[in-house]
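Q: I'm writing up a methods section and want to include an example of the input and output format. Could you take the sequence below and give the corresponding predicted structure tokens, formatted cleanly so I can copy it straight into the document?
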Amino acid sequence: MFEVVRYTPEHLEEWNLFIAQSKNGTFLFDRRYMDYHADRFSDHSLMFYRQEKLYAVLPANEREHTFYTHQGLTYGGLVMGTEATTVHVIEIFELLNQYLKQHDIHKVVYKAVPWIYHLVPAEEPLYAIHRTCRYSLLERDVSSTIVLSRPVKWKKDRRHGLRLSRDNGIEVKRSEDYAAFWPILEENLHTNHGVKPVHSLDEILLLHQRFPKNVVLFEARKDGQMLGGCVVYLMSQVVHTQYISATPEGKRLGVVDALIHEVLCTYPECQYLDFGKSTETHSDMLNENLIYQKEGFGARAVCYDTYGWEP
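A: Here is the clean output for your methods example:
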């Protein structure tokens, strides 16, 4: 039998320790990361206990009678320990639906953790949803991922960009100069996509301070001037490019290619480099120019799925 408990700040240490030891959790589920924007969301995270021992957690927020897992995160879903079994996870989802009905929740929007982030297989929730929920696939976003042990050859234009950066003396290295990179990022996102970065400069500095080994900036400079940068999120087996941007001059000199090459060389112990999603407007539109660039580095498709159902 399972017991479900709603998360409160008193559970912070227990929650974070469980995430660190889980089979499919990343530092994005650590409360020090999740709570940097706690003021924007009504948290409704849940903790599932079996025989008084924490068995699984579910990062979530609630908005207008809808239960999201989680609107502030790229991916989410049930986070489990290695002892989690399919039968027990089915029980958890049965209990979850009962709990949500009792708390006047009318709809569930459930993001799954993509398989590349699993330390060991962790798709028990997908089968449990199939068994216990009358679900539909709400969104299927496509990300682009390199398998570092079996890299695909870079396309000609990416190789040309790397040679160009070397010929022009571009220096790429790890950096702490987020303040110099952020205007480049903001200008690039505004000009090309009409959007702002998900994180403000103050927020990314806070997250870097809290997770200095996980939130890392690489910079590209010529003659001391920053021409581009790449912020990566480092997980146990995945390095994820959170932000990549360059000035017009940096793009002309191939600094993006140089940055990706440096990231690949820096983390040989990782299994995957994940560029993130290239889909927009709830996965209905594919940004073909963006995914062309990612696939030029040898990345290929991994889907990020979102499911919906009524409890």
